[in-house]
From TrEMBL, chains A, B:
GO MF entry, a single one: DNA-binding transcription factor activity
Keywords, comma-separated and alphabetical: DNA-binding, Transcription, Transcription regulation
Lineage of the species this protein comes from: Bacteria, Bacillati, Actinomycetota, Actinomycetes, Micrococcales
Listed PANTHER family: TRANSCRIPTIONAL REGULATOR, GNTR FAMILY, UXU OPERON TRANSCRIPTIONAL REGULATOR
Name of the protein this chain belongs to: GntR family transcriptional regulator
Stored Pfam families: FCD, GntR
The keyword Transcription is annotated on this UniProt entry: yes
DNA sequence: AGCAAACCAATTGTCTAACAAGTACACATG
DNA sequence: CATGTGTACTTGTTAGACAATTGGTTTGCT
């Protein structure tokens, strides 16, 4: 069905489209993606489809063993915890750095403005600007490696999000308010407070995601959420 | 020259051998690696060589633009700073966690014992157990994502090391002593102290590496070397 | 002679076709 | 019912070929 695409690289174009389809939920978890199927649906050769698949496997969006068909990754609650812990490690340190220089990234401000702008629409609409907000903070550090690491984490988060269709659990107003507070703390140079708020922000998102995925909340679910009012 | 190799995957075998040759310094920075050359030297088909190259490009060991020959990555001082900053972000938080649980990884103890054992030999010999020490700490956390991130950083560090042949700047005894101190601080549950010592440990290694690389002729040789002040 | 444009060799991107090897599931058999 | 076998499907790898791009070289014009 997907028509022939051509861009800078056919492999990249195919991988990019598959990525979108995975994030949109069109391709669900554990769905099989054979090389020949992809090759025929995009009207490309099998090696091209193979390369695109391997790209996504390297990104963690697909999984496959030797001589086995690639499948959309099925991330469990423990994976979500790993991902969010890694996010917290990177992002909290970045916040301390930004606060030390009182650097408020313009892109992050804009991203949060976009979140505030969307009052309605599908619940998944908040995912993109939310990820953009956090990515903007990371990118403001100007560290290529850290940005790349964070990108891979964001990709996995989006994969998790696509699994959870009942996203009324995403409180857009709360997300926007906490982002705003983060920016203010950075501007005030209060790095420790910003890092602490971020930990709560990510921790709550993580627990809601784990809960929505049907996973049992872990033993460390007892974070006092009342701290957020602050 | 390189004889035919066969393992679980030919692509992985070729990539693995190239990796060793890069780390050993046999393949120097900016050296061109054409697909046909690799294919003929390993007696594999060109697509296989291509896949191996792309694997190493994804790892950051090789770089290449579209339609251009792959080359061994040439990391400058700013890359070294990025890499070591990322290492510090991840590893210092991991140390705090390990100290909180008073978890002293047996593999790290063994790795440091190996460093103590080698009193002589080529200066590059200390690189492997040193990296193993740090990787053991990270792996003890049991977080798959963080371990993978750290692996990519280690690979780039080893690439830098291979560029610096005059490694008398590596003080084996000092490295071993600081590692020992780190383990003791973890055992004592003093996470903050361990994190602080690690920052110094990594900071010193970074500055030595930058200084050693700065003396050589690099593309960014014209920037004031006084920035490296130690 | 000097500079610019066209040409050419080398390399990569992609495709087609094919065979080998491994996996998974159904089927037959004890 | 359990177990072994076999067959279809899928992936791993190869060979050869052609298009597209890059970079250097050569040619042509002033």
């Amino acid at each position: 069905m997907a028509s022939r695409i051509s861009a800078v690289s056919i492999v990249e174009a195919v991988a990019s489209d598959l990525r979108v389809r995975i994030f949109s939920g069109e391709l669900v978890s554990s769905q099989a993606l054979t090389e020949t199927d992809i090759a025929s649906s995009y009207e490309v050769a099998r090696p091209t489809a193979k390369a695109a698949i391997e790209k996504l496997v390297a990104e963690g969006l697909l999984v496959r063993g030797v001589h086995k068909t690639a499948r959309v990754a099925d991330l469990g609650p423990e994976s979500v915890r790993d991902i969010y812990l890694a996010r917290a490690y990177l992002e909290s340190e970045v916040l301390r750095r930004l606060a030390a220089g009182r650097t408020v990234p313009a892109a992050a401000v804009q991203a949060n403005r976009d979140i505030a702008a969307l009052k309605t629409g599908a619940p998944l609409d908040v995912v993109e600007p939310d990820m953009r907000f956090h990515t903007s903070l990371i990118d403001a550090l100007g560290n290529e490696r850290i940005s790349k690491m964070y990108s891979s984490l964001v990709a996995e988060v989006r994969l998790c999000m696509s699994r959870v269709q009942s996203l009324h659990l995403l409180d857009t107003a709360l997300i926007q308010a906490e982002h705003q507070k983060l920016l203010e703390l950075i501007e005030a140079g209060q790095g420790e407070d910003a890092a602490r708020l971020l930990d709560q922000h990510l921790g709550r998102a993580r627990e809601r995601l784990v809960a929505a995925m049907g996973g049992e909340a872990g033993p460390e679910a007892e974070l006092p959420s009342s701290l957020v009012g602050e």
